[in-house]
Amino acid sequence: xxxxxxxxxxxxxxxxxxxxxxxxxxxxxxxxxxxxxxxxxxxxxxxxxxxxxxxxxxxxxxxxxxxxxxxxxxxxxxxxxxxxxxxxxxxxxxxxxxxxxxxxxxxxxxxxxxxxxxxxxxxxxxxxxxxxxxxxxxxxxxxxxxxxxxxx
Length: 152
Prior knowledge:
By secondary structure, the chain is α+β, with helices and mostly antiparallel strands. It is built from three helices and eight strands, in the order H-H-H-E-E-E-E-E-E-E-E. The protein is elongated and about 90 Å long.
């Protein structure tokens, strides 16, 4: 009988050690991922898939409008500059949902007032930090949605 050779106990210890490391790494990665995930998840992916073609049609109609936006910050307010192919768009109704990119703060609905020349400022304050604005603009029958970041 060999006393210094590789035995069943060595093999068992190797297997237990290997799987302990694998499980520890998986638990750590899953914990970090679930605490920092800031993505968007739908409640029901099948139902969301039923609307996909409609969403594509809406996006194509929005592109045809030729509207562009840029979001910025003015003190504790969000500013949106809205331009069309012929210049600034005045008289539109602008609303937005401000979302913290990492989901660390709750969503904030924003309404905007016109400052003229296609510039709109939120009537509600926006805390310091980076925010993703999901902006909806309505001007007569036309409507468009945009997503832009407000710098910190």
